[in-house]
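Its record is set out here:
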Amino acid sequence: TQRVRYLQSYFYDRQEFARFDSDLGKHVAVTEF
């Protein structure tokens, strides 16, 4: 079977600040606010 990994990145002012990883099942902060 094939696994699909879903990644979604969130950007503010052209800088990534958070992403969602389906393998982890949660949102992860990339940079501090």
User: Anything to note?
Assistant: The first strand starts at residue 7 and ends at 12. The two ends are 39 Å apart (CA to CA). Residues 1-32 form one domain. The mean pLDDT is 91.
